[in-house]
Design brief:
Blueprint lengths: L2 E6 L9 H8 L5 H9 L3 E3 L2 E2 L11 E6 L17 E4 L3 E6 L16 H8 L13 H4 L13 E7 L2 H12 L4 E9 L6 E10 L7 E3 L6 E14 L4 E9 L6 H8 L13 H9 L7 E9 L6 E5 L4 H8 L5
Parallel strand pairs: 7-13
Antiparallel strand pairs: 1-4, 2-3, 2-4, 5-6, 6-7, 8-12, 8-13, 9-10, 9-11, 11-12, 13-14
Helix pairs in contact: 1-2
Length: 323
């Protein structure tokens, strides 16, 4: 599990850059570690995202989410099955199975997708943003991520050139990501756009919440109902989400906020969705990265990669008339 720490800046500590201050305050971590964490909003001040150059002030509340183990080293290869959708000299496109953590972190030093990829293609350890960064060395080739229990399409860069090309498209929202989710109930409207401003929950730092435009990062998703189901156990829907931004837990939070939590999501679900999930014997959040549209390095046309619905999705949908 990730660890959290809160530091209140004293008068004797004011006037220092936040990245330098933390590297002195917590010398077991490097300055690069804190720079990377700040860029990913794993470190906030007064519940707001900041830059590494931020100068700390008296009374500032520094919230830190530690996502890596102390004194990290490069990840090692492990013999873990990979479902490869596509491969060339620049990229790997993988259909990630549910339950597989994407990269090593606190509580998950091994057994991750990264460990599997290194075993399959050892040279991927050279595909990092910063070879001096502990976080970068644990995430070779990664240009985007999926939650542990989210299945589906993920693209991985096999070299530095590819990494910068893919990352730029994703950061500039030029790549299209489509997700399928089985959600509790029926949405009020069959289609629509959800705009939220997401950030760390002010009371539960492990959760993400819609905290408003002043403090949160804009998150935009378009959704459309594919099919709704009515069974003796309860109502649920298959919904497509096309995300325009890639915020942590974006779909899960937004689905919950619209009153249709993803089934099996015990983090953002409610009593009704949790009860139905239990009745349907659902073991994980039913969220699947169905498709990715992106331009591969050196190519002019957009490539589309699809991952078929996994077995647990099909079990629910194919047996809906019998429930």
């Amino acid at each position: 599990m990730n660890k959290f720490k809160n530091i209140i800046i004293k008068s004797s500590e004011m006037g220092e850059r936040i990245d330098k201050f933390l590297s002195l305050k917590l010398p077991e971590y490097s300055r690069n570690y804190f720079v990377e964490s700040i860029k990913e909003s794993k470190i906030t001040i007064n519940n707001k995202s900041i830059k590494p150059s931020y100068i700390v002030k008296v009374g500032d509340s520094v919230e830190i989410e530690f996502v890596e183990a102390k004194r990290t080293t490069e990840a090692r290869g492990e013999n873990i099955d990979l479902n490869i959708i596509y491969e060339d000299k620049d990229v790997l496109v993988i259909n990630k199975q549910p339950g597989l953590v994407v990269h090593p972190s606190a509580g998950h030093s091994g057994g991750t997708l990264v460990n599997a990829i290194i075993n399959y293609f050892p040279a991927i350890t050279n595909a990092v943003y910063d070879k001096d960064s502990e976080i970068s060395k644990l995430r070779p080739g990664l240009v985007h991520r999926l939650d542990k229990d989210t299945s589906g399409v993920i693209i991985v860069a096999k070299n530095a050139r590819s990494m910068h090309s893919l990352s730029k498209q994703i950061q500039n929202h030029h790549a299209q990501k489509t997700y399928y989710a089985i959600c509790y109930g029926w949405p009020k409207n069959e289609s629509g756009q959800i705009v939220s401003h997401l950030g760390r929950h002010p009371k539960n730092r492990k959760k993400i919440a819609n905290i408003g435009a002043k403090n949160g990062k804009e998150a935009i998703s378009n959704y459309s109902l594919i099919k709704h189901y009515e069974t003796t156990l309860g109502k649920f829907s298959l919904i497509e989400f096309d995300i325009k931004t890639g915020r942590t837990h974006q779909i899960r939070v937004q689905a919950s906020d619209m009153g249709n939590p993803v089934l099996g999501d015990d983090f953002y679900g409610n009593k009704l969705s949790e009860t139905l999930s239990l009745k349907l014997n659902i073991k994980r959040q039913l969220l699947h990265a169905k498709a990715l549209e992106i331009k591969l390095p050196g190519k002019n046309n957009i490539s589309i990669f699809n991952a078929p619905l996994p077995q647990d999705f099909n079990r629910i949908l194919n047996n809906a008339t019998k429930l």
